[in-house]
Amino acid sequence: MTRSSVLCLLAAAVTVAAPAPAHAYWQWRDANGRMVYSDVPPSDAAASVLRAPGRPAGEYRPAEAAGAESAKPPVAAPAPTRASSKPKDAPPPTAEEAFQKRRESRLKAAAEEARKEGETAERDARCAQLRNYANGLQQGMRAAVAGPDGSLQHLNSEQRQAELVKTSASLEKNCT
User: Fold this and answer.
1) According to DSSP H, which parts of 72-94 are helical?
2) Could you state, in order of their start, the residue ranges of all structural domains in the chain?
3) What contacts 50, CB < 8 A, 6 or more positions away?
4) Does the CA dihedral 2-5-11-16 come out positive or negative?
5) The pTM is what?
6) Which of 37, 17, 19, 21 has its CA nearest to residue 29?
7) Model confidence over 122-141: pLDDT tens digits?
8) Over the stretch 96-126, which tens digit does the pLDDT of each residue have?
């Protein structure tokens, strides 16, 4: 075997043997017995933690009550803002409140992205229709417009050319 093939086999073996990264979430039962999932640890000491980040399920064992505060991972405090509506002595948000706030912002972002994608799809469909119409006008297909009384009036060559110029301008303005 050549040196490069040995290195490739070694790299493949290391890749296959490497464990998949664990999802960083906490899982516990709250005081009411409901299952709670979050990316921040529970603030309630009475919560029964079932899973902690970086540890397989069932391996989390909190420190005894005396040292429980030092066993909790540090939680980053939110940066102070000048226009905060909460008083300065307000307690930090609970894990559930922080989760709901993050969830709400993700949902808003997803809704905004879906709205933008919908607008883009509508714009693309209108541009395709305009391109088809301009192509038909260029090829000499019969075209008609609605007259003042609602009846169809077929375009003559001058009107067709004017309509083609108008359509081309609209394509250039809106579909580039």
Assistant:
1) none
2) 15-60, 112-174
3) 27, 28, 29, 57, 58, 60
4) negative
5) 0.42
6) 37
7) 999 999 999 999 999 999 88
8) 999 999 999 999 999 999 999 999 999 999 9
